[in-house]
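Let's practice the habit of predicting before peeking. Look at the sequence and jot down your guess about where helices and strands might fall. Then scroll down.
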Amino acid sequence: MHRCDLLDQLARYQTRHLDEAAFVQRARQFVAAHPDTFYREHLPAHVSASTWVVNPARTAVLLMHHRKLDCWLQPGGHADGATDMRAVALQECAEETGVSPEHIRLVHEGIFDVDIHSTQDPHPDAQPHEHIDIRYLVEIDDRTPAPGNEESFALRWIPLPLVARYNNSRSTLRMVDKTRRMR
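Done guessing? Here is the structure:
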């Protein structure tokens, strides 16, 4: 199992957010110590990948109302053994938004955000665990239809000032802050 690409990306990634800097350090240590962290069965934590989807004007983000978790999130998911987190994030974005890959533009090759958060699969036998979420910035034209898939109740373009009404988690607000700084 090759972890070098992810470890290299984490080593190069810089953030001005102290909480995120701690997540990056924890992620580097965990990924270096656990070759099987790319599998969802790996507990107490495993790597996941997601995309922060912005419109071309950087005034809105595309969030999905996740069916199992019943909350608004950015598209993303498990690596299921794949070690190229960028590819996993882009694949999850296409699958969960229903937008064809040719309409999804990776804004930057590097990591946009890193978060470690606790999660509980709603399945009764599932154990609480942590996701080490590696996030990439992508752009989709907000005029492109985003029908979603069976994993969501709805997808919606949310203007940046209103994102906190849908998800006010610290990590989501951190990504909103980063988006505002790009404009």
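How did you do? The chain is about 30% helix and 30% strand.
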